[in-house]
Amino acid sequence: HIVSICHGPAALLACETKDGQFPFAGRKITAFPDDVDRMTPEIGYMPGHLTWHFGERLEALGVEIVNSKPDDSTQADGKLLTGAGVQPLFVAWSRFALAALLLFWMLGLRPAGLGRLLDWRLILRAALIVGAIASILTALRTEPIANVFGAFFIGPIVAYVLSALLLGERVSWARTVMLALGFAGVLLVVRPGGEMGTGMIFAVLAGTLYGSYLAATRWLTAFYPPPFLLGSQLLIGAVLLLPAGLASIPASTDLRVWVLVIVSSLASAFGNYLLVVVNRTTPAAFVAASRSRKL
Q1: For the whole model, what pTM was predicted?
Q2: How far is residue 123's CA from residue 118's CA, in Å, rounded to a whole number?
Q3: Listed residue (67, 72, 78, 70) closest to 27, CA to CA
Q4: pLDDT higher than 80, residue 114
Q5: Strand 64-65 with 28-29, pairing
Q6: In angstroms, what is the C-alpha Rg of the chain?
Q7: How do residues 14-44 score in pLDDT, each as one tens digit?
Q8: What's the farthest any 2 CA atoms get from each other in the chain?
Q9: Vertex 223 angle, CA 219 and 228, to 5°
Q10: Cα–Cα distance measured from residue 58 to residue 177, given in angstroms and rounded to the nearest whole number
Q11: What spatial distance separates the first Cα and last Cα of the chain, rounded to whole Å?
């Protein structure tokens, strides 16, 4: 068997013979879409434009690519097994579970103190970030990445409003104008298109949940230290995503993919730890607006 995922089918191009024969002509595959690669570097996936696209070259040689979205679709054509990418819910779950496992003791998650994880406020906060991740992954199944992230960055506005209403943070014209300019800048960068389907409902929901998560983080920093807040988020999130994660574990994955999953988990955990630390002294609205830098 030949198994390939994501951009891996590009390696099939090496099988073309000098006289132009291609053994995979007529086969059906799934792969990472050229249309998404063409959106770089605007969406931040790579630092520059690709000089060529493997999908169109395979199609020119007679291969049929059956998917058009960066989803988790797979295709079996004889002994050629292809996949568009690793299951997104597996990636989401692994980021919580692996980071919680690797950082368990460092984050103050001692067995004697695990009872504190039953605090409804901690569960709510973890559920908000899990819901945001699940919603944005759902949106990305059917909607262009630029449209999804344009809608997702409604989050800072939600955090700003909730922080003012629930936490009593100061509202000023300067902050309001700067927040509006920041959101306009996001739209300028991602340049969402006019065609928007029902998946955009999930993109807006993701931004709303994420903004609520930021406000909840600011709220809970007065009750728990940053390491424990991060640890509770990772552990509770891993439990909430456990059914979806176990159902989507890849049967066979290259070692490099597992390395990337682990690095992604630790990098995400470190970023969220810094977020919690900053929230102890900084208004949630400012923190939310600064998150647009990840573009």
Answers
A1: 0.66
A2: 7
A3: 78
A4: no
A5: parallel
A6: 21
A7: 988 888 888 888 889 888 888 877 766 555 4
A8: 73
A9: 100
A10: 49
A11: 39
